[in-house]
Amino acid sequence: MPVQNKTIVAVAVGLGLITLSACGSTDGGEAATESKTVTLVSHDSWAVSKSVLADFEKQSGYKVKVLKDGDAGQAVNKAILTKDNPQGDVFFGVDNTLLSRALDNGLFQSYEAKGLAQVDARFQLDAGKHRVTPVDYGDICVNYDKKYFADHKLTPPASFDDLVKPAYKNLLVTENASTSSPGLGFLLGTAAQYGDGGTSRSSEAESGGGWEGYWKKLKANGVKVVDGWEQAYNEEFSGSAGGRKAGADRPLVVSYASSPPAEVIFADPKPSTAPTGVATGTCFRQVEFAGLLDNAANDKGGKAFIDFLISKKFQEDMPLNMFVYPVVKGAAVPAEFTQYGPAAKDPETMDPAKIADRRDQWVKSWTSLVLK
Fold it and tell me: CB under 8 Å to 297, separation ≥6 — which residues?
């Protein structure tokens, strides 16, 4: 599931790395040489079917090594800190909330991927320079525990406005906007909804308060903030399998519109309906990208891997591994997504230029307002 789990603050270089070597073979049984190894740096939510990756390795002649570097925000920040001597060749997992930070720091070199014409134009946010290639999209939304709300005979919240109502006091857990991309996405969603003050799309927004006025209300209503998605969803949220096992007591969590199908798919036995739902009026659209790292040791292999990421085979394999939606036109979406986790019909969005201009100040203000 994406953590898409996306840090803005400095990350210690000593972060633990998980190294995975995909299945494959080399001539004569010898270990792959460096020129025949492609190293992917990503967040912890990277996943692909072994057979699909093995097909790429067989057809391309490259062996793939994966370095997972925590939440996507942490991974992006570390990639920037090590850009002169990068850990790998390709970075996957920078999203639209942090894209300008990566581009402004010269993290990627230009490469126009083969098959890019089949990627929906609305996701090509760097189309003129091709420093990044869109790979997937998803919606950051508040999820709710259906059983909790049924047991308490309480209607689940449906909008940002609902979340500040007394009925939902002490029920919501969200991620830190300075260390997690879902947390940042949720903050940007409120900024898109309520603005900086003076004008608002919501009839119930605090007059002149904008997103800061909204977060004052949310804080007063008992919102809990944790560092990242894994903790929020699998330890604090009562509706997830992990949360139930941990005895979690928060029935509302900032997660993804695709989280409910994951709860069905991984359950044993599988329920007939998802145990969690989505507050569709709280969604913010997130797009994830991959890029060829500047100073990559294996440019050729990195380019081949980026081509692979927007191939139809990978795009159709991706949803049930990372629980995100494909960006390639015509790529099939699993039935479980259609039934249990359809994409939001009208998610909040924000111009990347506005995110670039305001993000850091918003995060600074949010930190002072919410965490202090």
Answer: 34, 39, 86, 89
